[in-house]
Design a protein that fits this description.
Blueprint lengths: L7 H6 L7 H14 L15 H10 L4 E4 L6 H6 L8 E5 L14 H10 L5 E5 L4 E5 L6 H4 L1 E3 L1 H6 L10 E3 L8 E6 L6 H5 L2 H5 L2 E2 L8 E2 L2 E7 L12 H6 L2 E4 L6 H11 L9 E2 L3 H16 L12 H21 L3 E2 L10 H5 L6 H6 L1 H20 L19 H8 L4 E4 L4 H9 L4 H5 L6 H17 L3 E6 L2 E6 L1 H5 L11 E2 L1
Helix pairs in contact: 11-12, 11-13, 12-13, 12-16, 16-20, 18-20
Length: about 500
């Protein structure tokens, strides 16, 4: 490999020619398209929607904004843009704003070249250092983004305030010849957004009235939630007009695709822990919780339900299985439906509720979301629960008849996330016909136990069985006798029947 040029003279002799960053990104993107390379590794579900929009914007040389709800990989896409930059570019050594040695921009760089000429040293800037981002908050100032006069620099270097070198550059000019991203753009104060107008249209920067004009070479990329999500601010109309492309992001269209994303992001394969198994059916069930939240009238849909709900939930599930392994001594631990209530901490902090949801309380809302997810899984895997099921009459011939008849006789089942698997399976075996029906979804004992729990909770969601929760225990009982009981105020510490 030939030695990289280390001085301006060597760089000029190598045949190097400056190239605008937009043209650089376009050329590298075209090369990747020709080779059919994966453009955004790790981004799933956007192959025919968001990614084509980003590619088209880059090919057109556009600044763009990703508009979507929380947890839709907007920041990850922005940070992946560095893959379309050259591996490294030459900069004048010591420059604050990445001056191109062949096309200097700052007053300092011009003076440096006048003094040293072809002997001026050159550094090489890697692509990762050419990307900067700023989280928009109301306290962000023009000085943070663009720059301001630095009185300390003026004093130590004995410069007058008329000298452009007294300027302390902000983060945007320090990203010259790179990509600058602003996350949550509507949160930026309107007067600060006005300061971006010239940058987006004329690529011009002015600081504190200095007569110096810096034509910055930048690609701007933004992200934002829809404007109805927050009352903290909006994107001003002139700024919207100057952002050439607006690209809408979205949540995964199916639970299967969402499960792939969760499997990619969640910390499930852990070293040094017990042998834990999370089957595909359980992963699918956890994704159904997020889907139920995105469809619930109790959840604020303008806020969105992040993909982090399922990611955090499955991580907590694995942790609960690890805990059970050491408590029970089972060699291998599998998930149970009675594990799901313990996933509430992963859900409550990630959903915003409407007034009705707040009145019911986060725990109640989470329980309803988990119940809706179990019901969706139950209805997709097992026969429909008919009206005759559990009636006790001669017409009660459905697949759930022996199960409901057993409960109607006054029997009950208590399940816990802390019992050994043998005891857990034995408790389920007490219900006539339950494991036989569950065996239609899987022959292994762990599969039959899981699907048996799905059947029991599905019958509860269909109002055929009562369910009583006490700490980590769930008890299923006959429904009718609880319907005949007169409602009473529940004392603190007593179990809830629902």
């Amino acid at each position: 490999m030939s030695r990289r040029p280390r001085t301006v003279g060597e760089l000029r002799g190598s045949g190097y020619r400056p190239r605008p960053v937009r043209r650089e990104m376009r050329a590298n993107l075209l090369r990747k398209l020709e080779r059919r390379e994966t453009l955004f590794p790790g981004i799933l579900g956007y192959e025919r929607t968001v990614i084509p929009g980003v590619v088209n914007a880059l090919l057109a040389g556009h600044d763009f904004i990703l508009l979507g709800l929380r947890g839709q990989a907007k920041s990850r896409i922005l940070r992946a843009l560095t893959d379309f930059l050259d591996p490294e570019v030459p900069v004048l050594a010591g420059s604050e704003i990445n001056d191109d040695p062949m096309a200097p921009l700052s007053t300092w760089a011009e003076r440096r070249l006048d003094e040293a000429g072809d002997d001026a040293p050159v550094d090489w800037l890697p692509r990762e250092a050419r990307y900067n981002e700023k989280l928009a908050t109301p306290d962000v100032s023009i000085a943070d983004l663009l720059g301001d006069i630095d009185p300390i620099k003026a004093a130590t270097r004995k410069l007058t305030y008329a000298d452009p070198e007294v300027i302390h550059f902000g983060i945007i000019p320090r990203t010259h010849r790179g990509i600058f991203a602003i996350n949550e753009l509507p949160d930026l104060a309107p007067r600060i957004q006005v300061g971006l107008l010239n940058l987006l249209e004329e690529r011009d920067l002015q600081i504190r009235g200095f007569p110096v004009r810096l034509s910055l070479d930048l690609v701007f990329a933004f992200s934002a939630n829809p404007e109805d999500y927050t009352n903290r601010g909006t994107i001003i109309t002139p700024l919207k007009d100057r952002i050439a492309s607006q690209i809408l992001t979205h949540y995964p269209p199916s639970a299967e695709l969402a499960a792939q994303i969760t499997a990619q992001e969640a910390w499930v394969e852990r070293e040094g822990g017990p042998d834990v198994v999370v089957p595909g059916a359980v992963r699918h069930l956890i994704e159904e919780i997020s889907i139920a939240a995105r469809e619930s009238d109790l959840v604020d849909q303008s806020s969105g339900v992040s993909a982090r709900v399922a990611i955090s939930a499955i991580e907590l599930l694995v942790s609960n299985l690890e805990r059970r392994r050491f408590a029970t001594g089972d060699e291998v631990v599998h998930p149970r439906v009675c594990d799901l209530p313990l996933l509430a901490p992963a859900i409550t902090g990630k959903i915003e509720m409407v007034y009705e949801g707040e009145q019911q309380g986060a725990e109640v809302v989470v329980r309803k979301l988990v119940g809706a997810a179990v019901l969706e899984t139950f209805q997709s895997e097992f026969p429909e629960v008919g009206r005759e099921a559990g009636s006790g009459g001669e017409d009660d011939t459905g697949p759930y008849a022996p199960i409901l008849a057993w409960f109607a006789a006054g029997n009950e089942v208590t399940l816990s996330d802390e019992t050994p698997f043998a005891a857990h399976l034995a408790e389920l075996e007490r219900v006539p016909g339950l494991l036989e029906l569950a065996a239609t979804r899987g022959d292994a004992p762990e599969q039959r136990a899981f699907w048996a729990e799905v059947i029991l909770d599905g019958l509860h969601q269909c109002v055929k069985l009562a369910r009583q929760d006490l700490d980590s225990q769930i008890t299923y009982k006959e429904m009718l006798k609880f319907q005949l009981l007169k409602p009473q105020r529940r004392r603190p510490g007593t179990p809830e029947i629902h």
